[in-house]
Design brief:
The chain has helices at residues 2-10, 15-48, 50-54, 60-91, 94-112, 118-121, 124-141, 143-152, 160-164, 166-188, 191-196, 201-217, 224-232, 239-246, 248-257, 259-279, 284-311, 314-331, 341-359, 362-367, 375-404, 408-429. The chain is mostly helical. The longest helix is centred in the N-terminal third of the chain and has 34 residues, at 15-48. The termini are far apart.
């Protein structure tokens, strides 16, 4: 038995490789699940409780808009985080950079749990909230690109898309954990207790998840491709400068390509939750349950897109997802009817399934656009700048559109986001 084990370890792709691959996949999935949990805890709280607690005003719509503005602040921080963490990720390595991003994100989320409200300290409350939200975004700016590289640069031949989809699965898992916890608190607590202290518990819980994530990531080594790049030549002195001077086309096209997935997600989650509970008067627990069911379709879409990408190309799967977003926008608004919650579930489930194809292949596709020496900076920067266009602005624009032109116009915004991403994909295909 011992001889068989030694033989397996000695073989490429044997037992040692299996153990290493399993550890890499668990680390990339666990890290992004935790980071996205932190991010979505804020998005959920912004949609249902932060408005009246931190942004007092006589108008519920204005409160919601102010809460969405604080939500958007993190997206503005994400490109800065991508630049800083990308710099060190391309110079000193993926592992230590990922540990630092996780620590920053976790600390910012944990501290939100202890913030006093506007009624307690006045305008200091929203200011402190925005500072911690900025810290969340800064940390997440370095997370996704590093996790994608960790998976893709360790993938065996023919498995890059399926390995690269693992960080993407952190999005639905983090969402389920965040919204599921809010749903349980809503069922267990009275409305008064939830508003007074219950909303803080998901932020406290993030500390435990961060400890688990650190334990997993500290056991990892550097990726083979990063080691090979360092052995070939010294790292770039300023990776972002080299990226923007030598790979500007790939960066811009990659930025456009991710717009649709961000718009699909944040309109189907943050905006849908806020609009359905605030404007339609639907019970919060009902909408959270609908979204928890619909998010399963996102996970399914990611899995199918990852498998299809390895069988064909990641580019083809991305085109399919972004193209399907365009007609989806024309029917998206019909799902928002308080009398027909089943219709809301169908619309959100379809939107999130389509998002799986616009999001799942990004780990393989976006990282493939850049050489290893600037890959952390390139994939992180494109992903997070695209997040501003598709994610930060989505709930704000959607709230404005629904106030001025009705819910149907929000769907047209989705269609426009799909067209923007198609432009980026077609542009690179013509190289």
């Amino acid at each position: 038995m011992s001889g068989m084990a030694d033989s397996a370890v000695a073989q490429p792709g044997g037992l040692a490789a299996m153990v290493r691959h399993k550890r890499v996949l668990v680390a990339s999935l666990a890290g992004t699940t935790i980071e996205f949990y932190d991010f979505y805890v804020y998005a959920t709280a912004a949609s249902i409780v932060f408005g009246p607690l931190f942004f007092p005003t006589s108008s519920p719509a204005a409160q919601l808009l102010a809460a969405y503005a604080s939500f958007a602040l993190a997206f503005l921080a994400r490109p800065l985080g991508a630049a800083v963490f990308g710099h060190f990720g391309d110079r000193i390595g993926r592992k230590s950079t990922l540990v630092a991003s996780l620590l920053l994100m976790g600390a910012s989320t944990f501290l939100i749990a202890f913030l006093p409200t506007y009624a307690m300290i006045g305008w200091w409350a929203p200011l402190l909230l925005c500072i911690l939200r900025f810290g969340q975004g800064f940390g997440l700016g370095g997370e996704w690109g590093g996790a994608a590289l960790l998976a893709v640069e360790n993938a065996p031949p023919g498995w890059r898309a399926r390995f690269g989809m693992m960080p993407q699965l952190g999005a639905p898992l983090g969402f389920i954990a965040a919204n599921g916890l809010f749903l349980l608190l809503g069922l267990w607590l009275s409305e008064a207790d939830f508003v007074r202290w219950g909303w803080r518990l998901p932020f406290v819980f993030s500390a435990l998840l961060v400890i688990i994530g650190l334990w997993v990531r500290l056991k990892l080594g550097e990726t083979p491709e990063f080691k090979a790049a360092l052995a070939e030549k010294p790292p770039a002195a300023v990776p972002l400068a080299e990226l923007l001077t030598r790979h500007a086309r790939q960066t811009l096209a990659g930025t456009f390509a991710v717009v649709a997935c961000f718009a699909l997600f944040y309109i189907s989650t943050a905006f849908a939750l806020g609009y359905a509970t605030t404007m339609l008067g639907m019970p919060r627990e009902e909408v959270l349950a609908i979204q928890l069911g619909a998010i399963v379709m996102l996970a399914l879409g990611i899995l199918l897109a990852g498998w299809w990408s390895d069988k064909t190309t990641a580019h083809r799967a991305l085109v399919a997802g972004c193209a399907a977003t365009v007609p989806l926008g024309f029917v998206f608004g019909i799902g928002f009817d308080a009398a027909q919650p089943g219709l809301l579930f169908i619309v959100l489930a379809v939107a999130l399934f389509i998002m799986g194809f616009a999001y799942g292949p990004l780990g393989e596709w976006l990282t493939s656009l850049f050489p290893a020496r600037v890959r952390y900076s390139g994939s992180s920067f494109a992903f997070n700048v695209g997040g501003i266009l598709g994610g930060a602005l989505a709930p704000i624009i959607a709230q404005y559109l629904v106030s001025t032109h009705g819910i149907g116009s929000v769907g047209l915004y989705l269609s426009a986001a799909g067209m923007v991403s198609l432009i980026g994909l077609v542009w690179l295909a013509r190289e």
